[in-house]
Recover the amino acids of this structure.
């Protein structure tokens, strides 16, 4: 890789470059779709080795990115996401090993049946094709997304944040080395070789059928732009305004531990709870739940009923019910039973992850049926919204749409299928 | 239904009307998503009864449409598609009964597993939401599509051809009567109550999130427009340029019966074969296959080798390899074995349905693996590309894309899923 850091001159040149990348990725996708599991796993093993062996080069490239970003005066949260450490590179390599170990989804027969005329019909998993991944400052996404696409037989075009360009390039070198060692086409994992931001818009156009799906990884503004502009399908969630509803039938100790975990385990993840709904009939539970959150350092913004239980509660505004804080802040209100909780979630939720704490099984089933979210939980924390926690081994993100992938998007969700029919000369009457 | 036939004045009014329809359809979709199978089946039974009982009214409305179309000087093929007969109305009612009898997909647990921490995770089928169906002259699509969406728990907005407006309205009256009798919201099956063609563009815009997916039913120009303009997912196939490849290992008698059926059983269906590929090593088979087609009244457009076997063969032009004739015409050429056949299909196919006739199982498996089409068949006719023939009971169409639905789109393919998690107080470490 000797591509210079400067932007390629002019949009016409960039468009030609991107189209060419997509054509090569499409050709690589055809090869990858037919690659046996062992060959893909050989590539994954080589990528893991290369990542560990090239850690010094990755760290050096990252140090340049970090120095440039620091000079530009970026925020400390951004700097934290951008910065790689030996431990983070180890984690990246461990992630590659995990993906190698998960089951290969391609070629799996998910259903098969015999027709009265003797034909057998099989539904077989095949890759989607070429996946475009657009991410921001975290350079490790290049490895995470790259290897998950490889495992699922898809070619991928990676477009990292401009600020992490050198780091991504160093990681990408390891990915390409692994592909090469396994005899797979290098274009199977392509990194957009320019920092020119116009490349993002070109990817969102679909590059004339060159990209089949876009996966954005980053903040809300990136996802919103992708959802608004993409002319191809998008696997994404804009936000996770997730709710925990504590029913009158809830066990208070269980409710406390679930609410605390859902909100405070990690406040910055998309599965974190942002709103607490407490059944009016659970009046005695309200105060201990609110005080527990306040004592744990969580700001509570409540309706009138919640404000009454503790002077530290701040009044909630209308916007609070629609806000994803990603911070130690929670909106809290009292609702009139499970129906009112469902109605609140319908009006304010983001179809991501919602949980009910209840001992009454019928109430719980009603909540699980009627709440229209990718993940609905009964007596468990919303923080389980994660491909690893679901047993998928790895995920490329979480989707809240209803098309194709929904919830944690793992290797299986990155596949399509075909119908394979075996006959003995059947013709249609 | 007392909406006048004239177009609603002005696009602003039409946009308001369509947005209002979509809002009501969305509300109906929420009710329908939770309706028990028995209630939906009661509606289907009532729709069947109403369709049979109202046959005279449907025929009268259709006669008006036909008279108007005839006066406008439309083609006889169009007239045939537009015209309803007592037998066609019976067929429509039988179709409703078939859909009532298929398994209800909603609520089905397609996978479930237990995590090491004791949580159980279930993947449960849920409806997609609001489906927009845009169709042309065949008024029976209103019934076929309406009841399949109902069965799969989706609300539907139907937009029929302007020429079949009165017929669709009469059929829609039966659908609404069935919904009403079963206590389901009438907006669950909505007919766009205007002939104004601007309505199509508004549907393609997605009506501000009011429509989740568009299914076009009609000719290539309609599908092309929908695929180009839709801002929501589309389940469709643009065309079926389907191939039959006759391998050197094929049984000649079987090849003859499959080729004849694939091309000539019905030439106007999307599963009809359009191109015959014959292995160069099957030299003795070429002449009998070509003569059989010619003798059956099929025009054959061949490459040099095919032209040599019979004087009636016309020369194929470059465009022939990419043409969906939907008529008694076939393009035919000789290829160098299965690899060349696969390469030809890659260059010229439409990812719809392709078949290999071969006794060599390894050759067949290679073809089935490498041909990137929704349906690939071994020793069976391409005319089996049909939801009914697959055992789905009914289909809303056939999709060639790789997202969500692929191949025949039946009730199951009109669903999404959610993850339902049951815990006993689990929190994430």
């Amino acid at each position: 890789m000797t591509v210079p850091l400067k932007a390629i001159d002019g949009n016409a040149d960039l468009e030609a470059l991107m189209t060419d990348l997509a054509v090569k990725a499409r050709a690589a996708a055809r090869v990858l779709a037919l690659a046996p599991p062992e060959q893909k796993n050989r590539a994954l093993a080589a990528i893991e080795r290369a990542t560990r062996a090239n850690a010094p080069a990755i760290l050096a490239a990252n140090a340049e990115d970090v120095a440039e970003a620091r000079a530009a005066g970026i925020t400390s949260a951004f700097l934290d996401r951008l910065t790689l450490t030996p431990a983070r590179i180890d984690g990246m390599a461990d992630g590659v090993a995990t993906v190698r170990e998960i089951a290969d989804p391609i070629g799996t027969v998910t259903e098969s049946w015999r027709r009265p005329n003797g034909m057998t019909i099989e539904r077989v998993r095949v890759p989607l094709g070429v996946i475009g991944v657009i991410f921001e400052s975290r350079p490790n996404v290049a490895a995470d997304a790259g290897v998950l696409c490889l495992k699922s037989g898809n070619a991928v075009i990676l477009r990292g944040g401009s600020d992490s360009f050198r780091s991504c390039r160093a990681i990408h070198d390891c990915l390409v080395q692994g592909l090469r060692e396994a005899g797979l086409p290098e274009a199977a994992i392509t990194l957009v070789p320019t920092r020119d931001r116009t490349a993002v818009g070109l990817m969102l156009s679909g590059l004339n059928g060159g990209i089949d799906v876009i996966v954005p990884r980053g903040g809300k503004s990136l996802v919103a732009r992708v959802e608004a502009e993409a002319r191809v399908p998008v696997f994404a969630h804009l936000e996770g305004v997730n709710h925990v509803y504590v029913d009158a039938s809830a066990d208070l100790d269980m409710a406390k531990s679930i609410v605390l975990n859902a909100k405070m385990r990690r406040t910055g993840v998309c599965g974190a709870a942002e709103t607490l709904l407490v059944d009016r009939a659970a009046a005695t539970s309200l105060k201990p739940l609110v005080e527990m959150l306040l004592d744990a350092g969580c700001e509570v913004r409540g309706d009138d009923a919640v404000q009454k239980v503790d002077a530290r509660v701040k009044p909630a505004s209308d916007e609070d019910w629609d806000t994803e804080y990603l911070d130690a802040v929670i909106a809290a209100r009292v609702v009139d039973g499970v129906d009112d909780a469902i109605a609140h979630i319908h009006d304010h939720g983001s179809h991501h992850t919602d949980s009910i704490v209840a001992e009454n099984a019928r109430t719980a089933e009603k909540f699980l049926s009627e709440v229209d979210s990718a993940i609905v939980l009964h007596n468990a924390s919303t923080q389980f919204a994660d491909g690893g926690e679901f047993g998928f081994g790895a995920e490329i993100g979480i989707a809240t749409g209803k098309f194709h992938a929904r919830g944690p998007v793992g290797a299986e969700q990155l596949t399509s299928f075909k119908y394979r029919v075996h006959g003995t000369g059947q013709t249609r009457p």
Remarks:
- The two ends of chain A are 59 Å apart (CA to CA).
- Chain A has two domains: 11-236, 242-386.
- Chain A touches chain B through 59 residues (CB under 8 Å).
